[in-house]
Amino acid sequence: MATADYKLFTPLTLGNDFVLKNRVVFSPLTRARSNPKTRAPTDLNTLYYEQCAGAGLIVTEATAISEQGFGWFGAPALYTQEHADGWKKVVDAVHAKGGKIVLQLWHMGRQSHSLSLIEVY
């Protein structure tokens, strides 16, 4: 059997119209490549996720939803327009390669650092 014939590499429809080009799901990996001052995704984030777009679905790394929700340096965020603009570049790059992407929303809760990590670093 040729690799292309494996069910793993066939499309999958979820719901009525959410079609994945294959059944490979790229799970979240912490990359710590976001802008250290603004926490916005950078061109390096865009390139990284674009390179992963061969998977049917990408789940992004943990992405903070507030200033108080960070647990480590370099983690991305999504709570300002700059963050949204950075993520739009990522999404557009993945879609251009035929991939789908979902954002993992995240808050560290009690494990968050008591200071803003921007102040710490």
TrEMBL record:
Signal peptide: none
Molecular-function annotations in GO: FMN binding; oxidoreductase activity
Domain NADH:flavin oxidoreductase/NADH oxidase N-terminal per the UniProt entry, residue ranges: 7-113
SUPFAM superfamilies linked to this entry: FMN-linked oxidoreductases
Stored PANTHER family: NADH OXIDOREDUCTASE-RELATED (PTHR22893), NADPH DEHYDROGENASE 2-RELATED (PTHR22893:SF91)
Protein name: NADH:flavin oxidoreductase/NADH oxidase N-terminal domain-containing protein
